[in-house]
Amino acid sequence: MTLNILIADDHKLFRQGLISLMRTRGDFVKVVGEAATGLEAIQLAEQLRPDIILMDIYMPERNGIEATREIRIKNPEIAIVILTSSESDKHLKEAVSLGISGYLLKNLDGDELFDLIAGIERGEAAMTRTMAARLLKNAANVRAGAHEELTGRELDVLRAVSHGASNQEIAEELIISVNTVKTHLKNISSKLQLDNRTQVAAYALEKGLVDL
Question: What is the DSSP letter of 40?
């Protein structure tokens, strides 16, 4: 399956470089559009309905955070990955709260980018260990070793979520009901004091509870 990609970045040279990189993996990804402003990203997301948007933060006519917010409301099925030079904790926290599929810095390696994009197709969060650690560092009241309070079954659910499994898939794998999965997830979030699946996956990754 080829993933359709929309690139949103106000630097033309960076967009061209990213497009050239994507062409080396034409069997896997295809760039279907490019936007130079946040407003263009919103409009093209509606027109093209890409599978994934690689979204910069610093853009005119609505920044990447604002554009992400609007796209998530109108087209929640589109996976949005922030690809930026910003290491701001504020930007990271805001982006994650919107339900993004990943937060990456522009200095990452091309092969690593493709690996993380492949993970998105499986429902995984596109985030390096460094960014996962930064996210956890800024998550309110997350205590070191909090996962030690999780039961064995809760750890099973935690690992499955981190690998991108849906509630239904987890239920089938563990031979439990979907409602039981939801209860485990609620308990996990409460014990770890995290807000969503992305933060749960980041926690598991940073603590070495799951493989990359």
Answer: H
Amino acid 29 reads: V
Average pLDDT, stretch 151-179?
Answer: 89
* Helix 178-192 × helix 152-162 angle, to 10°: 90
d(C-alpha 146, C-alpha 116), whole Å: 27
Q: How far apart are CA 41 and CA 54, in angstroms?
A: 10
The alpha carbon torsion through 35, 40, 42, 48 (nearest 10 deg) reads -60
Q: How far apart are alpha carbons 103 and 174 in whole angstroms?
A: 30
pLDDT tens for each residue of 33-79:
999 999 999 999 999 999 999 999 999 999 999 999 999 988 989 99
Strands 3-8, 52-55: pairing is parallel
Closest CA to 88 of 138, 14, 18: 138
Answer positive or negative: Cα dihedral of 59, 63, 64, 70: negative
Digit-coded pLDDT (tens) for 3-13:
999 999 999 99
How many whole angstroms from its chain centre is CA 173?
24
Whether the pTM exceeds 0.85: the reply is no
- Is residue 141 very low, low, confident or very high in pLDDT (cuts 50, 70, 90)? very low
Output the CA–CA distances (angstroms, integers) from residue 50 to 7, 32, 122, in the order listed.
10, 7, 16
Q: What domains, with CATH codes, occur in the chain?
A: 3-126 (3.40.50.2300), 142-206 (1.10.10.10)
Mapping DSSP to helix (H, G, I), strand (E, B) and coil, where does residue 55 land? strand
